[in-house]
Amino acid sequence: MTSLSWRRMGASLLVTAVGAAGLVAAATPDDGPGPGGTEVVTTWGASDDIAGGTLNDVTVRNVVRTSVGGKDLRIRVSNAHGDQPLVTDSVYVGRHEAGASVVPGSSRRLRFGGKTSVTIPPGAMAISDPLAGPVPARTSLTVSLHVVGTTGVITAHNRAMQHSYKSTSGDHAADESATTYQTESSAWYFVNAAIVTAPQQVETVATLGDSITSSVGTTIDTNRRWPDVLADRYGRLPEHRQLGISNEGISGNRVLGGIAKAGSAGASALARLDKDVLTKPGVRTVLLLEGINDIYAGATADELIDGYRQLIARVHASGRCIVGGTLTPVGGSFVYSPEKEAARQAVNTFIRTSGEFDGVVDFDAATRDPADPSRLQAAYDGGDGLHPNDAGNHAMGQAPDLDTLRCQ
User: Fold this and answer.
1) pTM of whole model > 0.85?
2) What is the pLDDT of residues 376-395, one digit of tens each?
């Protein structure tokens, strides 16, 4: 496996890996923008939640996967739920090799306003300076961040379906080996977006949802979430027809209710829409798949539809499009009852027929058992009657018409 190729503009230095032999440097001119211009887009994203406990003088290593390629990578670091300043003095990005290890020679330091350290106040975020050079599509990167002192409330994304890693004490952000990273975690810490400059025609779809969008039930560390399947489909198109994917699902999340607290399901979709979705660079379309947890919590179909209408109005007011995804079957799960199934069916009828969304993706039709439409197909059931497995997520990722998600 080769490491990342980073092009350093201005200095006109191309650094690229040659297998495992190391790095070679060669002079190269600045590429400049393509003939159609460029646009800043989100190539990877996650929504902010809260992890329990605190961190003290350790380094967290997150593994994230790009969707579209581009150049000039920037990382957005979040202290959105913090109750005290988050201080980091060392943040590195590299190409993921395996486990907590980084491909040798690929690691590079991020800066913030030209400085290697940044202090992020409670409730705020910081975006790094761009790392000049190309960023490959559909490639796993490591983002390693040293925490100075002791954190208060930790901003994180729980149930990421991807292992992250915590080090022994000290700054190990630049380490490319896994030696000091002795603790696995299932959360992404502090990072919620990877941003690149891409061809102007490229934009981003934000998938807004709950655990089914986070893809709980898929095999960890394999990128088999349905938004990843969708990203792979776009990746097979010519560059000018590609779209980036930003996964904004939170396990247990609801459209109407909920507040962020440790171990919670995050703030409601109505509460987090701006922060988690509309502030992500390049987001042009929102694909909404959420509401099962609301129905389980007692919301009526009419109440949930009213929430959808608010999301639709706010997305439209921002100049973007919103596509509705039908709610997947829950028969045989703890969520199911005849009354709640009637509410799910009523909500799905609204999504399919109201014309209020800019498009529809029928996830229900893609995953239901033809012999019992209240249930997932047996081959798609992750084991609890609610969460689709790898095969079910593949079917969901195949469900959207790729042009439906282009906001015309």
Assistant:
1) yes
2) 999 999 999 999 999 999 99
